[in-house]
Design goal:
Elements (H helix, E strand, L loop, with lengths): L1 E6 L17 E6 L5 E5 L1 H4 L5 H10 L5 E4 L4 H9 L3 E4 L5 H9 L17
């Protein structure tokens, strides 16, 4: 399974970024190979609007099955959901901790966005 975690840094010891659309990086982790890569989200960090949708499209392009982030707006959630990507909400520690919680079944998929959109 491939997991995307919104991250403040570019490695597994980085803090999970509570922001999805304006996260600095997405850590893409493969649970089978235990390999990861950091995908920059710099292009969306300062976007005037549409950061959630554009970030979701970035993640969709990485062929992940699950996203972990602290917050997801309605448009980002809808974009991920339409692509068949599940989302779990958590941002209390590191990327490695988020992955471990997800793999152990302690993080459950959310049924929707947990924050309002900024432009609604």
């Amino acid at each position: 399974m491939r997991i995307a975690v919104s991250s403040q840094g570019n490695d597994l010891d980085s803090a999970v970024d509570p922001r999805f659309g304006r996260a600095k990086f997405f850590i893409i982790y493969d649970t089978e190979t235990k390999e990861f890569e950091a995908v920059t989200n710099e292009q969306n960090m300062f976007a005037a609007q549409g950061a959630g949708i554009q970030s979701a499209q970035t993640v969709v392009g990485q062929k992940v099955e699950v996203v972990v982030s602290g917050n997801l707006g309605p448009k980002a959630y809808a974009t991920l959901s339409a692509a068949g990507i599940k989302a779990a909400l958590w941002s209390e520690g590191t990327v490695a901790q988020a992955i471990a919680l997800l793999e152990s079944g302690q993080l459950k998929p959310t049924e929707g966005a947990n924050v309002r959109g900024h432009w609604m």
